[in-house]
Amino acid sequence: MVAYKDIQISNALINDANAPRVAVFVGGTSGIGKLTLRALVATGTSLRIYLIGRPSSEVRTRTFVQELQSINANAEVIWVEAEVSLLAEAKKACELIKSKECHIDLLFLTTGYAPFGIRQETSEGIEISQALSYYARVLFILHLLPLLKKAENPRVVNVLGGGLERTTSINVDDIDLKNPGSFGFTTAQPHYLTLNTVFLDKLATGHTDVTFIHSWPGWVNTGNVWRGLDANQSILSWAIWAFLDPLIRLLSFTDEEAGQRHLYICTSAAFGGCGVPWSGKAGTSTTGRVDEGLFLTNYKCESTTNTKVIPALRAKATPSVWKHTHEVLKPYM
């Protein structure tokens, strides 16, 4: 594990010369996104942040933005309202950002929730949790990639489950989990995180000038475990209240440490070689390199190449996932 004190030392070195100048946070109104955003603003650097969130979070987010600007007067936080489970709205948010910026240094993606409930589709015909955990994230990356490639040290940080992939986790014959019995918590969450890794691994090979990171944050008490529950799931709600929620509270990082660890992931040269100088062990990507590729980082802030799984996924899943994802997103590009 990268020691917390070493992460704090690294983060203390963040300055206007090595910090992201323009950042986009998708899902930064709560959970790890919010914690990381606060940690980034607290560095005191001059930066502009686009904070994208659903309409229902606007009131509390306005208060949060005021808090951020009181912490750092050099930080400009721009609220962008968008229900990004709808890909058409995600596209509009991207178009807004593209109309205002000539480059983006950091894209931080955390949208989604634990899909404990029944399958529910958006008006666009996509299961809501899959839209948030996969399709919207990829859409933001593809739309903003040209601006990322114009930055000096561009980085995409996708927070879900990097390193937890298994060859059995993904269903290439039913990528949208529409077949009877396909959708459920034990199948959906592993499926989504593997989809993210498969797509990002392929994308990273063609864009070596951008650092791609898929992070597994471990236990963090974000509250998202409750979001996917249906109102009539009384037994499951009781089980979460009685067992899972206390376990999360017991094992979780503090909010402060979770934010600082992801700030480190966003800025340290340990991943890709650019950023805040790092004298410790360099991360290794899924290509086996330290300077390019997709970095799978765990809650210890260590990277894994997952060498027993990634090559098999490339052969088994990459062609199907790449083609299917582009077909789904084509109307929104």
Folded structure, characterized:
- The chain has ten helices and eight strands.
- By secondary structure, the protein is an alpha/beta fold.
- Helices cover about 40% and strands about 10% of the residues.
- The longest helix is centred in the middle third of the chain and has 22 residues, at about 185-205.
- Strands 3-2-1-4-5-6-7-8 form an eight-stranded mixed sheet, with helices on both faces.
- Strand 7 (about 295) and strand 8 form a beta hairpin.
- Helix 2 (about 30-40) crosses helix 8, helix 5 packs parallel to helix 6 and helix 6 crosses helix 10 (about 320-330).
- The protein has a single domain (about 5-330), classed as NAD(P)-binding Rossmann-like Domain (Rossmann fold, 3-Layer(aba) Sandwich).
The CATH architecture comes to 3-Layer(aba) Sandwich
| Sheet with most strands | 8 strands, mixed
Instruction: Output mean pLDDT.
Output: 91
| Count of separate DSSP helical elements | 10
Structural class: alpha/beta
GO molecular function: oxidoreductase activity
Protein name: NAD(P)-binding protein
Organism: Didymosphaeria variabile
Keywords: Oxidoreductase
Short description:
This protein is of the alpha/beta class.
Fold topology:
Layout: H1 4-12, E1 22-26, H2 31-41, E2 47-53, H3 58-71, E3 75-81, H4 87-100, E4 106-109, H5 128-148, E5 155-159, H6 185-206, E6 211-215, H7 234-251, H8 255-267, E7 294-297, E8 303-304, H9 310-316, H10 318-329
Parallel strand pairs: 1-2, 1-4, 2-3, 4-5, 5-6, 6-7
Antiparallel strand pairs: 7-8
Helix pairs in contact: 1-8, 2-8, 4-5, 5-6, 6-10
